Fold:
Amino acid sequence: MIHALSSAAYLDRGLTLERRVSDLIERMTLEEKAGLLFQAMITMNPDGTLAEDAGRAPTGASTSELVGMRMMTAFNLLGASDPGSMARWHNALQELAMDTRLGIPVSIASDPRNAFSNNPGTAAASGPFSKWPETLGLAAIGDADLVRRYADTVRREYLAVGLRVALHPQIDLATEPRWSRAEGTFGQDAEVTSRLVAAYLEGLRGGRELGADSVAGMVKHFPGGGPQKDGEDPHFPYGKDQVYPGGYFEHHLKPFRAAIAAGATQIMPYYGRPMGTEYEPVGFGFNRGIITGLLREQLGFDGIVCTDWGIITDNIIMGELHEARAWGVEQLSPEDRILRVLDAGADQFGGEQNPHLVVELVRSGRLDEARLDVSVARLLREKFRLGLFDDARFVDPDQAEEIVGNAAFAAEGRRTQSKSMTLLTNRPQSGPPTTAGTPVLPIREQATIYLQGIEAPGDGSVVAVRSATEAQAAVIRLETPFDPRPGVFESFFRAGRLDFSEQELAPILDLLDRVPTIVVIHMDRPAVIPEIVDRAAAVIVDYGAGDEAVWDVLLGRIEPAGTLPFELPRSMAAVKASRPDVPSDTMNPVFPFGHGLRPATAAVAD
Structure:
């Protein structure tokens, strides 16, 4: 037990980091080292108790088994509860870890959970946490100080409940318009992304160095997951290929160079395999040329490399069997895949919980235990730097209730939702001389408005009517189109077409022709909407915004400051003809990257 080792050197905070790490490694068994190399998904009971029902666990194992028997110390929390319960759960998990032989603390990671995404494969529901626009919205504003404040807010909320690793920022360049993961990026531009990732990482750290008050950011997805063939995602077999017909492989590395220069300590490679390059066409997590040759040797990164989730074994996700994302090495056994990952230079297996496979490889003589020690040292250094062996191990449930989602955080999140919106067009009104020629936005208070897809503001500032014929104007909220996919898990990845079908478009255009209509469209990817742009009274893009935040813009209370983080293509033919690795590569776009009006200074964009 931990009290029996209280005089151990690794528990002496007065010693150097390297002395503490080396002392602990010398004490660890093979099984303990193997457990450290895995980061599994984990759930909690809503009341803050540990999830001990193995039949309902995503891993098929109880929390006690994962910590006590498999000796795992890294987990990715799925779901949430109230902040106090989350904090109590975290403390209970740390108590469980303290009761192991060496008392190695657990590290809890989280996907992004401060925005609007409903894709459980890439984000967590915000629940009690403050709600901001998606990362695209932060990029639309382009303010590094705001990004730093956002990340600092995430840090404070994560720390309050014990989340110490952020599985973000995502700094892929969204150069393929159809790619379903664009929403989590800073858009298509390498310079914007490079500038903002430095601020993001500083905000998560809470300063220049990683410490007891920091959240470690796991930057993803090396070497850039944007150039997906046909825009498909490598979560699925049909999206396994990344292609570079424009020769822009190096261009996609720019944000990662910036992240490393800004002190990134953890990096995640993506699932895809590079096609038509100098590198072996196998998934990046298995790719020695990418991880050791490029990331470690050329770029000088010596931090933690954690694979993306589920590249070793097949998994049941939402009741469906999904094969391991072992693209290019599908023929290998799980054991051989582990060898490939470790030989490539990675340290940790994301979304896996099979330490026994590593133990068997060492005992069979196929894997040198000294190789494990290299990765174990990297993983332990991070835990020590985060203060997990010292005072930062436990959290205060009462403080968690006060901090998470507090009024100040929520207010800035809502303001940022509004501010991030992009005004594409704002046409002059027709009608009586008092309003003729003035832009349709902002809407005057007490105007009669027909609404679709949006609730009326709660303060009665406009009069909602049931029919467009009764209205002075209409407001409609839309989503970027996509091709529905058949699988349950697959359905959350919005991919494929970006344009409305004729059947979908007809009622929209009919409304636009009958009454001056303000279109607010949520873009998780760049929509193809030339017909709507031509006929709407005004068009606004949001990147994650609640109705009240939208009304703050429509009524002129907050001026939208966003500019497009990607270009808006004119047609699907233009999208299909563009090169996936090249930004701004569609022919004659409706709007270029960086377009955005201000209501007070511009009336129309044609």
Remarks:
- Residues 144-161 form the longest helix (18 residues).
- The two ends are 71 Å apart (CA to CA).
- Residues 601-606 have pLDDT under 50 and may be disordered.
- The first strand starts at residue 38 and ends at 42.
